[in-house]
Amino acid sequence: MAFDKSKFARMTTSANSAIPVMWGYSTTDATAVVDSAGYFNGVAGDVQVGDIIMANTSTGGTLAAGFYLVSANDGTTVDVNDALVVNATDTD
């Protein structure tokens, strides 16, 4: 599946552009798809290197969540690091 900009939103605001921005995103796509280079190209004009994207992934199956660091953005192609996965184990 492709990136869906309607499910992507800025979560923090600062007047200082040197401070990283936290973004939120939700998708049925798997974590391995989301952390592929180019997945976030649709927001290349919005995100900057160092921003963090908090995402719920695989929402159509076994829910997963993770943090993605924007590691490269040349204005056209956005790359994020592999997800720092949030452990979703619930033992009760």
What would you note in describing this structure?
The protein has one domain. It starts with 7 loop residues before the first strand and ends in a 6-residue tail after the last strand. Strands 1, 2, 3, 4, 5 and 6 form a 6-stranded mixed β-sheet that branches. The radius of gyration is 13 Å and the shape is globular. The protein is built from 1 helix and 6 strands; from the N terminus they run ββαββββ. It has one helix at residues 31-34, and strands at 8-10, 22-26, 52-57, 64-73, 78-80, 84-86. The relative contact order is 0.22. A hairpin with a 6-residue loop joins strand 3 and strand 4. It is mainly β and 92 residues long.
Write the layout of secondary structure elements.
Elements lengths: L7 E3 L11 E5 L4 H4 L17 E6 L6 E10 L4 E3 L3 E3 L6
Parallel strand pairs: 2-3
Antiparallel strand pairs: 1-2, 3-4, 4-5, 4-6
Features:
single chain, 92 residues, mainly beta, six-stranded mixed β-sheet, 6 strands, 4% helix
Q: Separation of termini?
A: 33 Å
Largest sheet: 6 strands, mixed
SSE sequence, one letter per element: EEHEEEE
State the share of residues found in helices, binned by percent. Answer: under 10%
What's the quick description here?
This protein has one helix at residues 31-34, and strands at residues 8-10, 22-26, 52-57, 64-73, 78-80, 84-86. The chain is mainly beta. Strand 4 (64-73) and strand 5 (78-80) form a beta hairpin.
